[in-house]
Amino acid sequence: MRIKICRKESKESAYWLRLARCAQGKEDEHQKLMQEGTELMKMFGAIITKSISRDFS
User: Fold this and answer.
1) CB atoms < 10 A from the CB of 21, how many?
2) Contact indicator for 51, 3 with CB cutoff of 8 Å
3) I want to staple 14 with a disulfide (CB 3.0 to 4.6 A). Which of 8, 37, 42, 49 is the partner?
4) What's the pTM value of the predicted model, to 2 decimals?
């Protein structure tokens, strides 16, 4: 359950980063943060997928 919360929080962080992009002009830093957020979402999603598949095995 906590992993789902982590994934949700990382999605929300990505949302706020997209909004902040409009307000500031630091494109390099923004791009790095967006990439890191995307990687975190993928990791949490993989953990959730693997844990669900183990539950059904």
Assistant:
1) 15
2) yes
3) 37
4) 0.66
